[in-house]
Design a protein that fits this description.
This protein is mainly beta. It is built from one helix and seven strands. The N and C termini lie far apart (45 Å). This is DUF4873 domain-containing protein.
């Protein structure tokens, strides 16, 4: 895939996805690491939040950052985008890391309309 891409469809049909570059930083400015990621997310009506997760491709700088932050909150964004809170998870056998967040994702998604059962 040559270009970064984001896709969005109805949350009942499939998750909203992003495959491309993501910038990660423990402080939102000092040290920024750019990695390739594969993310998907969905609106969870039970808690009213958007949940996103995925994996990074292997990167030695990311391995060092993961040791430094030890599952603490970090910041993530698509290049030039707004920062979103994220957490790095465990490293997979191929050298990438699980990454996840709750709330506004670091990639652009289509708005999700939620029906209000109290309104006719």
């Amino acid at each position: 895939m040559s270009a970064d891409r984001a896709s969005a469809v109805d949350h009942d049909e499939a998750p909203q996805t992003y495959d491309g570059d993501l910038e990660l930083s423990p402080t939102r400015s000092v040290e920024v690491i750019r990695v390739r990621v594969h993310l998907s997310g969905f609106f969870q009506p039970i808690d009213g939040a958007f949940h996103w997760h995925g994996r990074t491709e292997p990167d030695d700088r990311l391995s060092a950052l993961a040791e430094q932050v030890a599952r603490k909150e970090i910041a993530a964004r698509v290049p030039g985008g707004e920062w979103a809170p994220a957490r790095l998870g465990e490293q997979n056998p191929w050298g990438g890391f699980r990454i996840a967040g709750r709330g506004r994702p670091p990639y652009e998604v289509e708005p999700v309309e939620v029906a209000d059962p109290t309104r006719p």
